[in-house]
UniProtKB/TrEMBL annotation, chain A:
Belongs to the binding-protein-dependent transport system permease family. Coiled coil: none annotated. This is ABC transporter permease. The keyword Transmembrane helix applies. PANTHER family: D,D-DIPEPTIDE TRANSPORT SYSTEM PERMEASE PROTEIN DDPC-RELATED (PTHR43386:SF1), OLIGOPEPTIDE TRANSPORT SYSTEM PERMEASE PROTEIN APPC (PTHR43386). SUPFAM superfamilies: MetI-like. It comes from Telmatospirillum siberiense. GO terms for cellular component: plasma membrane. It comes from the Bacteria. Keywords: Cell membrane, Membrane, Peptide transport, Protein transport, Transmembrane, Transmembrane helix, Transport. Residues 74-262 form the ABC transmembrane type-1 domain. The chain crosses the membrane at residues 78-102, 123-147, 195-218, 239-261. GO terms for biological process: peptide transport; protein transport; transmembrane transport. It is a multi-pass membrane protein.
From TrEMBL, chain B:
Pfam families: BPD_transp_1 (PF00528). It comes from Telmatospirillum siberiense. PROSITE patterns: ABC_TM1 (PS50928). The chain crosses the membrane at residues 12-32, 99-120, 141-167, 187-207, 245-271, 291-314. One of its GO terms (cellular component) is plasma membrane. It is found in: Cell membrane. Gene3D superfamilies: MetI-like (1.10.3720.10). This is ABC transporter permease. InterPro entries: MetI-like, MetI-like_sf.
Amino acid sequence: MHAFQRYLRNPSAILGLVLLLVVVLLALGADVIFPRNPLALAGRPLQWPLANARFWLGTDNLGRDIAAQIFHGARISLLIGVVATSIAVVLGILVGAVAGYYGGLIDEVLMRLTDAFQILPNFLLLLLLIAVFGSHIETVVIAIGMVSWPAPARLTRAEFMSLRHREFVEAARLSGLGDLRLIFSEILPNALPPVIVYASVVMATAILLESALAFLNLSDPNVSSWGNLIGQGRSVLRSEWYVCAIPGIAILLTVLAVSLVGQGLNDVLNPRLDQQ
Amino acid sequence: MPLLGFALRRLLTSIPSLLIILVGVFVLLQFAPGDTVDALLAQMGGGDIAVIENLRRFYGLDASATVRMGRYLLRLVQLDLGFSAIYGKPVAEVIVERLPVTLLLMASSLLLALLGGIVLGTMAARRVNKWPDALISTVGLLFYATPSFWLGLMGMVVFAVKLGWLPSGGYEELGAGHVGFWRLVDIARHMVLPTLTLALIFLSIYLRIMRASMLEVSTMDFVQTARAKGVDETRIVTRHVLRNALLPMVTLVGLHASTMLGGSCVVESVFTLPGLGRLAYEAVVQRDLNTLLGIVFISALLVIIVNFLVDLLYARLDPRIREKGR
């Protein structure tokens, strides 16, 4: 419980946790509070927030309830955040672990592959993947995971390279453990903390990537996503700017929550960096 | 020239990666539904089979995928990017028209992010844990979490719609007929909002790195020595601390070259700037695969060149590399 107590001593980390809980509650409460399809026509279009008691965040230019879209949109952002990040981190750990553990030619080949992914702009590759495989929400989630693995891979590789000749690893090797056991049960648990902290950066980026795609109308149009709503509201930006403003604040707060939790975890898991 | 040698060695290692990108993207595009001819036919509203076959032969689409890939790579070596069916001219020409806008946007954003990050990061580090530090760090955190396209839209509402200080989009006022100096002023006015939009997220990262490395470097022995010798604080910061604190920033600039290029896709779409990023978006929507491949190639080259320059700069800043050549 020691780590948890240390986490709770940090006010900005608590703020992050609270914000994140709010987003989770929005996602969980979406079906209870707004059981209707959030993308269905709900009332007269372009009613300002608080102007009508039924629509306390107003309606967009298609007459859809903005509050309902915010609640349901939280699900998409969390889905993207959790699933795409898991894909990226698992892929990154696999590539980084193999490259860092074996070194030599395998390392060289895997690192040139990682370089290739880092040279090609993330967003451009994402556009390519969407152009080829379509913009279903599943495709979008997988595509975002596919473009986000290089940084965790590099981090894992660096950890593995510094750990692979430590005494406890050599001892385990002498006692006859195979490569797989050494990688997964000896080295990986020790290499994991910085990668877990970095996962928060991957998650923040993933949420931003999806919202940008949705804003450009390249994400799934059939799910309620905050980015979609901003893209939709763009045509009435000059007068009814609230249609764009509200979902943007939702994205901002969610990404902020993820970053703050990540920083809090970092201070707990990597105490030597916590000297300011 | 050990300095150049170091950078050149790093440049050589990017060649296999470039090859992986080109082959990978070419293979990826084989899965795309419909080719250039299909896109063209959709635009023309259909055509008879003989015409279609002729078109396929004209664009070299009748050969097998392996042959086409070989041809494509061979042409790339000669810097021939092929022909864009949608724009009706060579891809290289389309890209060259769009490139300056993106380069200008990236350069100005990078400059703003670096300068802002260095200044604010230094200010925060010199008043660590006091209110200026808290304020700067909080603002940095907010910028980091803000989606750039949203920031752009909100900037548009405030500065273009409500206040009317800045134009809301485009690269220049086309009908105004500005020439010479006034044209530059006009373009600069159009670039203010896009530059801010693209730069702020990078500024927030640089500011955080700068603050951390300033704090780290200022506890080191050589800084303590300088302080003991009675060197005044401003000089310590500019001559001793800053130079060392800059190293991690320079590394990041190399890494960010490709992120920035990706970010300009979105920013250019928000502000309807005729740049490379917007071209990529249009190429995706119109299934102009030749143009898309060309953009991938040029973007990769651009990132590699930026990294080469960053390596040169890094070696210049860090005498340890200059000495050993590695």
